Structure formats: structure tokens, C-alpha cells
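Shape matters. Shown next:

___
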Amino acid sequence: MRVTISRKAHFNAAHRLHRKDWTFEKNNAVFGKCNNPNFHGHNYGLTVSVTGKIDPETGFVLDVKVLADIILEEVEIPFDHKNLNLDVPEFQDLNPTAENIAVVIWNKIRKRIQSDFDLEVVLNETDRNFVTYKGE
């Protein structure tokens, strides 16, 4: 029997969608107002879900407190109130689109979750726009 547990979190961050190898005009044509040279921000919502077998001793798939601590350490502390382009090393050469942010978060959390568990990350950039990543 496999069960999914989920934990919600949030962080506020600024970013700019921009490719250094493109002209300003091409960046503007593709990314529009999200290419603002002065950046813009979002109140991101995050849902992290872990699916696995229930441990017969504890009754847990994974202790939600453990998952909460992983999210705090891997996402909230390094991303909250940061400029993703300037302050977060993973985005120095990676465009911080919602898709790329979700993959980066998944990779950071994946390292901390045992390999026989499935992991899913849902990142809400706005109330209407969100990305889901489950790994490759």
C-alpha cells in the first residue's frame, strides 16, 4: 500500500526572465514584462508530496516534521526574500522560470528523500499559474 503525504510552504522572491546570450530586443519579445531589468517578484506557493509505503512501526510514510525541515532548509531559507538571479547560485546561469525553479527545488529535496519514495513538487507562481514536476 503506497500513500502520499504533502506539505505546503511559501516563499517570496524576485527574478528576471532573461537570457544573457540574447539581445534585449529578443528577450523582450519572448519574456515581455518579465524581462524587466529591475526584476519583479512573486509570492510563490509550494506543495511537496512524497509517496511511499507506510512504515508498520510508525504508521508514517515519512514524518511530516522531517519533510517540513527539509523544505525549510532547502527552499525557504535559501529562496525567501531573495533575488533568484543574483542571490541563488543555482540560477547564476539558469533562467529562473517557474519550470526551472520547480526542477531545482525537486533536485534539492530529492537528495534528502530516500530513493524508494516518489517525489512531486508543485510550484504556484500565481493563483492561476503553476508547474508540476515529478522527476524524469
